[in-house]
Amino acid sequence: MTTPLLSVSNLVTEFGGEKGASGLKAVNDVSFKVERGRVLGLVGESGSGKSVTGFSVMRLLERPGRIASGQIIFDGVDLARLSNEEMRQIRGKRIAMVFQDPMMTLNPVLTIETQMVEAVRAHDQVSKTIARQRARDALGLVGIPSPEERLSSYPHQFSGGMRQRVVIAIALLHKPELIIADEPTTALDVTIQSQIISEFQKLTEESDTAVIWITHDLAIVSRLADDIAVMYAGRLVESGPVSSVLTDPKHPYTAGLIASVPSRNRRGVPLRQIPGMTPAITMLPKGCSFRTRCDRATDECLVVPPLFPQQERFVRCFHPVMKAMT
Amino acid sequence: MVTSIIRRLFQALFVVLAMTVIVFIGVSVIGNPVDILINPDANQVERARVIAHYGLDEPLWKQYFIFLRGLAQGDFGDSFVYGRPALGLILERLPATLELAIAALGIAIVVGLPLGLYAGLYPSRISSRTIMTGSILGFSLPTFWVGLMLIMIFSVELGWLPTNGRGPTLEFLGGQWSFLTSDGLRHLLLPALNLALFKTSLILRLTRAGVQEVLPQDYIKFARAKGLRERRVIAVHVLKNLMIPVVTIVGLEFGSLIAFSVVTESIFAWPGMGKLIIDSINLLDRPVIVAYLMIMVLLFVVLNFVIDICYTILDPRVRLDSKA
Fold first, then answer.
1. Considering only CB atoms, which chain B residues are within 8 Å of A90?
2. Nearest C-alpha in B relative to A100
3. CA distance to partner chain B, nearest, from residue A198 (Å)
4. Where along the sequence do coiled-coil regions lie (chain A) (predicted)?
C-alpha cells in the first residue's frame, strides 16, 4: 500500500476552553486516511462533527473552535502545525472545498469573474487576462453554457444548480489533490443533485483527485464513495470499504442508519428508526455515546470502546452486529 | 434606468409641492410677523401700509398662490428683516455650513470606519472594548456640552485654536470658504470635531455590527477556502457588503448635518445656515424660513436619489428598473 494522501490521526477539535482547560469536543479522537484518487464518504447526522472535521482539515474553524490535538498529515506535512501563510498556500491550491449551500457560498456583490480571477491569482502570479481565460475554461468544463458571457454575471443570476457548478469550477481551478465536499448536493433538487454528482465524479476521476464527501445521505455514499467513515457524537464509530460496511454493518448505529433508509427490498415493512435522539454535545452519556439508544448496550459500554480492527475495517463497539440486517 | 430617473424626478416634484403646502401653513400659524416688524408706536395707517407691502393682507390661500408663482420663477420672496431675496441670503451662508458638514462627515468616516472594522474583526481585544465604550460616550454626551468643553480646553486653557467665527475666507466657485486658508482651517477644526463626534460613533457602531454580520457568512469562509489572503478577504469581500448600510447612513446623516448643525453653529458662532434659520425663526422672517425648509427638502430628495444610485452600484441585486 502506498502512503495515503491525507492521514488524520487522533484529531480532537474543541470549542472553547484554552490553556489546559478542555472545551467541548466537537471532534473526538478521529482518525482516517484518504488515498489519492479515492473517495471517502464521511457520514453522520447533524451535529455528529463531520463538517467540523472537514473544516479542521482546511484549518477554517471559526473561533472559539480550535484543533486541540492530533495530526493531519497531508502529503507528508502536518497541516495542524503549519503557519497561517503556509496553510493559505495550500487552501484552494492543493486542497479545495465545496460548501453545502451554493446560494450562500458565492459573494452576492461580486461578479463570478472577480471571484474566479481572484482565486486563480491567489496562488498563481498570472495576468488578469490569463486568469480570466482559465476561469472561462473552468466554467466550460463544469458544463456552464456560454461561459464567456456568464463570467460577468452575478451569483443571483444563476440557478442553484448552476451556482454549485460555479463553486465546483472554482474548486477545480488549481487541480487540487484533495477536495472536501461538505454536503454539496443537499440544497439542490434531486434531478440536479444527480447531475452534479455525475459531473463531480467524472471530473475527479479524470484528474485522480481524492475526495472527502461529507453527507448524511447513504444513497449518495453508496453510489460515489470507495470508503466510508461513520461519525456519531464527535467520534468515529465505524469505517471501512463502502461495499462491506453498507452490506454488513458492524456497529449498531451504522446498522440503524442503514435500516432507516427506505429500500425497495423491504417494501411493505415499516421503516425502522433509531430510538431516541442524538445527544447534545454538552451532555454526552458516559462511555459509549450511543449507549442510551442502543439495544445491545451492557454495563461494559460505560467505558468508551476502542476502535476494534475487523479485517480491513474498524468498529468502535464491544458488541458488534454479527449478521447483515435484511 | 432612464425611466426610473424620470419617475423619480416626478415623485420629487410632488414631494416638494406637498412640502410647500405644509411649510406655508405651518409657518403661518406660528405667529404674526407684523407684531415684530412694526414699531409699536406706529399708527393704524402706517400698520396697514406695511401689512400691504408684505402682502400679508391677502387671505392665506391667495398668499400661497402668490408664493407659488414666485417659486416657479425661482423667487422665494424678500426677507422681511433684511429686505433682500431670501434665497440669496441662504445661499450666501451655504458654503459655511457645507464645509462644516463635509469636514465633520470626513472626520467621522476616516475615524469611524477603520475603528469599527477593527472592533468588528477583533471583538474580544481590550482595545476593541475600549473603542466601543468610547463610542457610547460619543453617542450620549450632548453636543452643546462637548462644544463648550472643546472651547474650554483647546481655546481657553491651551490657547491652541480660536473660539469662534470662520476666520479669513477665500473666494471659490462663487462662495466664501474657510478651508482654503490655514487660519480658516484652524477655525474650522473645533466645530467640525464637535459635529463629528456623534457621527463617528454612529458609523463606528454600524461598521462593527456590519462586520459581525458579514464575517460568519459562508461566502467569507469560501473566500478563505480559495486561499485568498486575509487582506483581500477583508478589503473586498467584507468591505463591499459592509458598504451598503454604511452608505445609506452616511448619505442621510450628511443631510441631517447640513440641516441640523444649529447647535454647533450657535456655540462656535459659525455664520452658517443653521444660525440664520434660528435668527429668522426668532424674527418670524417667513420667506427665509420657507426658503430654507424648501432647500432642505430638495437636499434630502437629492440625497436619497444619490443613495439609491450608489445602491445599484454596490449591490447588483438591487435594480432601479424593477418596480420601486
1. 227
2. B218
3. 23
4. none
